[in-house]
Amino acid sequence: MEKIKIDNSVRGFPMPMVVVGAVVDGRINYLAVAWVSRVNSNPPMIGVALGKGHHTNKGIREHKEFGISIPGVDLIKAVDYVGLVSGAKVDKSKIFESFQGQLQYAPMIRNCPLALECKVITKVDLPSNEFFIGEIVGVYTEERYLTDGQPNIKKIKPFTLTMPDSLYHEVGEVIGEAWSIGKDFKI
Amino acid sequence: MEKIKIDNSVRGFPMPMVVVGAVVDGRINYLAVAWVSRVNSNPPMIGVALGKGHHTNKGIREHKEFGISIPGVDLIKAVDYVGLVSGAKVDKSKIFESFQGQLQYAPMIRNCPLALECKVITKVDLPSNEFFIGEIVGVYTEERYLTDGQPNIKKIKPFTLTMPDSLYHEVGEVIGEAWSIGKDFKI
Question: Which one of A6, A8, A10, A13 would you mutate to disrupt binding with B, by most B Cβ within 10 Å of its Cβ?
Answer without folding.
Answer: A13
